[in-house]
Design a protein that fits this description.
Structural class: alpha+beta
Number of helices: 12
Distance between the termini: 35 Å
Radius of gyration: 20 Å
Length: about 350
């Protein structure tokens, strides 16, 4: 798992410019590659402290959960937030296991794609979501065909199937979304997820990355101009934060943000927190404690202006790390990619 995320960090760093160049959906702001890279980098960095952590380091689920929490806390943009959701959900079926297998891969990918679809208020096909769904379905079908075989050979076949299905799904994105079809490009987030899945295959099987996967993907060429630069400017801002909320307050926040803007993503960071007792449940008045249990949420939304969204968020809790980025602000080539906008 450490090898996987380290390889994904390097690969997305190498490909971030090309991913940015074709990033025109949901906003033509040319930062999908940067956002994915920075979020994966945060996940990979979580491994640096594993030697001093209290949790067992040979538990695949525990290790990935720690990386997922780090990714969620530092997620950037739509693509980065969805990757963090993917990673957190991926870890859940793997808890208590010391190795990956085809049945576990199928279960984990299925959990991850369901969670990713549910994190968005208005999910649409032709994006990272479609790529994740295709990969999960293929891994599940492969596992079923081999009757739950947990051998390394079966795992290799399931990884091959997942990556190949992801590639097919990336190719199809061009015809699933009108902006992509008009520009004759595939979805940038989908390509990023394809790269991440191929990095997993490479790390597990000890094989090289399949560079040929990218051959023929429309718009994906280093020599191409940045297509997003010619798209109409997008008014508004991207607001992100982390906040502790009860499930009811979280549902209220999602509804209000849906009314204010779009691209609303909300996903839990970690488990419930309740000071009344251990493990998030009090010893007395269990029903009341459960109702008041608080969860940390990563919140993302695109709105015309920040003040209304920030006010709604603050009316329901005490957010941390509120960041606001202009969707159409030109990137300053003198700054590291992704450092635009400001923090409240």
């Amino acid at each position: 798992m450490k090898r996987w995320l380290g390889k994904a960090e390097t690969t997305l760093g190498n490909h971030s410019d090309r991913l940015n160049a074709i990033n025109i959906f949901p906003v033509a702001d040319g930062d999908t590659g940067t956002n994915l890279y920075l979020t994966v980098r945060a996940a990979a960095a979580a491994f640096a402290d594993r030697s001093t952590a209290d949790e067992p380091v040979n538990d695949v689920g525990v290790v990935l959960a720690a990386a997922g929490r780090a990714a969620m806390e530092q997620a950037r943009g739509n693509s980065g937030t969805l990757f963090a959701v993917f990673l957190c959900a991926l870890a859940e079926p793997l808890a208590g296991h010391t190795r990956l297998s085809a049945p576990l891969l199928a279960a984990a990918l299925n959990r991850a794609q369901i969670r990713a679809w549910s994190a968005l208020s208005e999910p649409v096909p032709g994006t990272m979501l479609s790529v994740l769904e295709a990969a999960a379905r293929a891994a599940g079908e492969c596992d079923t065909a081999h009757n739950g075989d947990d051998s390394n050979q079966a795992l290799g076949l399931a990884l091959d199937a997942a990556v190949n299905a992801a590639l097919d799904a990336v190719v199809q994105t061009e015809d699933q979304l009108a902006p992509l079809h008009a520009a004759r490009v595939v979805d940038a987030g989908g390509v990023g997820m394809l790269l991440i899945l191929d990095c997993l295959r490479s790390a597990v099987l000890g094989e090289e990355l399949q560079d040929e996967l990218l051959d023929g993907l429309h718009g994906y060429d280093l020599q191409d101009p940045h297509i997003h630069a010619a798209m109409p400017a997008d008014d508004g801002v991207e607001v992100m934060c982390t906040i502790s909320l009860s499930p009811l307050a979280a549902a209220t926040l999602r509804q209000r943000l849906d009314e204010l803007g779009d691209s609303v993503i909300m996903s839990q960071v970690g488990s419930a927190s309740n000071p009344s007792g251990p493990n998030g449940a009090g010893d007395d008045d269990d029903d009341e404690d459960a109702a008041e249990a608080s969860y940390r949420w990563r919140v993302h939304v695109h709105v015309p202006e920040a003040d209304a969204a920030v006010a709604v968020i603050r009316s329901l809790g005490d957010p941390s790390d509120i960041s606001v980025s202009q969707l159409s602000m030109p990137r300053d080539p003198g700054l590291p990619a992704g450092q635009h906008g400001h923090e409240y």
